Amino acid sequence: MTQPRHALLATIALVVGGVAIGTTEFVTMGLLPDIAQGISVSIPEAGHSISAYAAGVVVGAPLLAMLGATWPRKELLVGLTVAFVIGNVMTALAPDYGWLLVARFVAGMPHGAFFGVAALVAVDLAAKGREGRAVSRVMLGIPIANVLGVPGATWLGQNFGWRSAYWLVAVLGIVTVGLLMAYIPHLERNIEGTIRRELQGFATVQVALTLLVGAIGFGGMFAMASYIAPTVTDVTGLDASAVPLFLLASGIGGLVGTPLAGRLGEWSVLRAITIGCVGMGVNLVAFALTAHWWPTALFFYFLSSVLAGILVVNLQLRLMQVAGEAQTLAAASNHAALNTANALGAWLGGLVIANGLGYTAPSWVGAGLSVLGAAVLGLSLLKHRADTRPSLARVS
Predict the structure, then answer these.
(1) Quick one: pLDDT at residue 188?
(2) What radius of gyration, in Å, describes the C-alpha atoms of the chain?
(3) What is the DSSP letter of 186?
(4) Whole-prediction pTM
(5) Per the UniProt record, which residue ranges are transmembrane (predicted)?
(6) pLDDT of residue 392
(7) Is the alpha carbon torsion for 323, 377, 64, 81 positive or negative?
(8) Nearest CA to 153 among 88, 231, 109, 97?
(9) In the chain, what are the domains?
(10) Residue 74: which of 168, 183, 193, 206 has the closest Cα?
């Protein structure tokens, strides 16, 4: 059994890696004007670097998880972090637009696989009955990045050139490599793991339904959050300087929701996901109805991140429950599904805005996506009950 102190140090190593990944994922949004000016493209063109990163996550999560299926998990985490460092160094050195897009794609590829494998390692090191809390602690890297890493890297990039932000992230990645090598215990090579076994375990109805819950249901939050800046100014009526307050509230919401998610997951993973999906739908309706008043707008935006934390952690736990021999592939694919949700929610939200329905319309769309996610979860629950109900023949 792993000693508590060693488990704590291992968790810290994984969280630092999560902070680095969360920072590089979101810092680009705050530096788009600087990046655009630096490489002589328009801001919308520079924005494609965000899409390139998301594409890297979607492609890299299953691909790297399959290729690393037989690797010891410590060595796989180190390899993924080295790839992450390379992608961010490439970004910092990018001489032109094409190089930047490739660099962001490369930087995104290890994202999902890192969090997936980190969750598996956390469970390996956790005391029995505390697996949910172990996974939730690992996932704290993203909200910590939103509260500390992203504002800090954005300030650095705005004052010392946008490339400095990615150099900072690369340094964080190097620190993570050192921490992983020092504090993650050696875990035996998965001799049973092969690409074929991973694919066979992955191709199940419950894995597909769980990923769909994430890809659709989680899109609800992104439909609203993608347009929070113009919502704050045009609907709530605040100055643009108030937007960072909303972003800070979102980060704090993640810090609240993520550890809460672990405890809910130890109670019931499926019930926790239900709370996340249904709660998100209700919350988005409440946001749409009260966004004109800043206290309620701020509160419901905060609450959306609390519910998002509950969803992310428990979708991860659910995949680990149903994946069978596809543990690495399924765990990594959770973040591919969440990035699909990001793209879906932002696209649908932009669509209703472009059709003149206003900045509260994305929240209504998001509520609809949350309802659809809950419906898919309902199918998963029915399948779960059918699979676990004793047959009449067995009873007789």
Answers:
(1) 62
(2) 21
(3) P
(4) 0.81
(5) 46-69, 76-95, 101-126, 138-158, 164-184, 205-229, 241-262, 269-291, 297-315, 336-357, 363-382
(6) 38
(7) negative
(8) 88
(9) 1-191 (1.20.1250.20), 192-396 (1.20.1250.20)
(10) 183
